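Minutes, project check-in
Item: structure for the 711-residue chain
Input as provided by the requester:
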Amino acid sequence: MDVALKELAEKLGICTHFSYVCNGIHEKEASAGLLRFLIESFGYKAKTEDDIRKSMERIEKKRWQYALDAIYVRTMDNKNLDIVLTEKETQGETAFFYAPEGSDDFKPLSGVLSELERRQEARTVYVKMQFAVTEELAPGYYDVEARTTKGVYKTVLAVTPRACYELQKNGKDKLFGFALQLYSLKSRRNWGVGDFTDLAEMADMLANSDGDIIGLNPLNVLEHENPEYASPYASTSRLFLNPIYIDVEKVPFYEADDKDEAAIAAAKAKENIDYTTVYNTKIAALRRIFARMLKQHKSDYYKEFMVFMAADTGELHRLAVFQAFKAQQCGTPAQKQKKAGGIEKLAIVGEMEKFVSANAKEIEFFKFLQFEADRQLRAVEAKIKERGLAVGLYRDLPVGVSKNSAEVWSDKYLYMQESGTGAPPDNSFPIGQKWMLGAFNPFELKERAYKPFIRILRANMRYAGAIRIDHVMGLSRLYLIPDKGEEGTYLMYNAEDMFNILALESHLNKCAVVGECIGNVSDGFKDMLKERNIYALGVLWVERKDEDGTLKTPQEYDRKYFASVGTHDMPPLKAWWFGREIGLMKELGLYSAKETEQSYHWREHERWILLQALDNEQVWPEDRRRQANYLFGEGYPEGLEEAVHSYMAKTNSEVFMLQPEDIFQSEKVQNLPGTDIPLYPNWRSRLPVDVEDMEASEAYRRNIAAVKKWR
């Protein structure tokens, strides 16, 4: 491959080669075609040698064309800024001033200014200076001005701690809690999908059991016009909530006639969640409630809604406009014909204003949905505080956003165009994964002073004591695949900036951080997480000691782990035991006969390894000792859940998360990666037990007792 092409790609943070682990370590070199495609997506030409030379010159000159970067992200012990001035400017006085972000209360900023290097362009000599800040600054964001004889240059200084906020344990050594898929909660009261009232009841149940943390799937808003597009990891916006979780009967101005009993009964009678019926039934009821609220201008509820809308800085409005337009597109055929044209038409001068004016109430309705969802989630947080849970909600931030989303539509320059995120092959997914999620353009993100990233962190840390960063490696690099292609490579981000901002927001929001890093993890990455006080996941099926698959003992688990038996991408314990996901992969044609046979043989081996580990730790319940080896179809061991939960509760890890699917012996796989409707009903499985019956059940009482013996 052309050396100059590779050099240009690497200057832009595009990896020209990488390694991945999939039944051994493999080296992969990106093709010239892929490199050119990604280089050109950043606005640089790379078709010819001359193109490449000119693009390199543009990059080399770029930093000398402006005085200050948009933002400087610095730790408290290293607050250095660089500034580019003309030689003539340096002969006059240069003074720096600072103010807390947005305050305009500027004060002199003390520091030492020194020369770094010079560069001549045409007849002008430019000098790059370093300003080493000596002022003691608390963690936070500051507006900074450099005042010279020529003018005033502005930037933002983010002063960050090195490590993330400490997990609050209320004096306890080890914590435990639930890892919930909120949609999967089944109750006699709800309308066919778990809601915020179910979540509050689970918080009560956990408090009664002396637990402290409730992990959740991402709660972000999904496609209004297509409720069956149900993956919580491909949202319409990571800034806002999914209104399907609203308990309609808890909304002020609700009336009994708003409830469509027949539709709800039909939806609840189905084996899997009927998102279309549930969502549309809720939306219809909420529209009626919204109409009543608008007639009650003097009510406290209406006034609260007005305050909520007034606090919007633009993101809520853009989401509501996006949803209102999309809702029109899925109307009757006559409406579709009348309102022809994709959402891109709103970019035409004057079209946005016309649409907003003509659809003001509809746009306000979508804002109302966010208002009520936020109000109900805030009530859950109040319940958690009332019951004294040490951590409370443990929310989940997806690695990306749907490319068909309000975020990407409203700010295309911020996201990579014509490519999306995925993952190279690994031992779990040997064909790799093509998620097609929108990824930040790292250069544009910095030009925006990382504000879009900061807003997303704040939105998902809200009401939470901890947050899980999905695919946390994505803060340093993301695997990009062109929309029209299968080959991918990594795009590098400014990891130092991204992790420092994460640490700062963690402190400002008093929210501990967990990083999901299962799969291809670069050497030293987990050590870096530990140094920054970022917890990792400690998953039973992943924590192995050797190629034979021997499980780590509880004593070998790291303290900085959120431990669990599995994840939403893995089968529940009973389904794992019988290899249900292997059978599914065979039925769907994703495994050959040979791969299926090999997988079943390996699972049989794994079952024996698990039984040995449980024996060695002496965690079987006294009245349910192991009776056999349970091989070759000998059945399912009674007490296996209790034994496994005892094993995980014994680990050194500060937190252990139980999955209700394991407690209640669910055999349904929540998500079979690489598939979706119509192949497999991902994200649609309900728990086998109603919320109202969980706490009194023998399975719940025995499993909680097994955990509390060690925590």
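Outcome recorded: Residues 592 and 679 are 16 Å apart (CA to CA).
No further action items on this chain.
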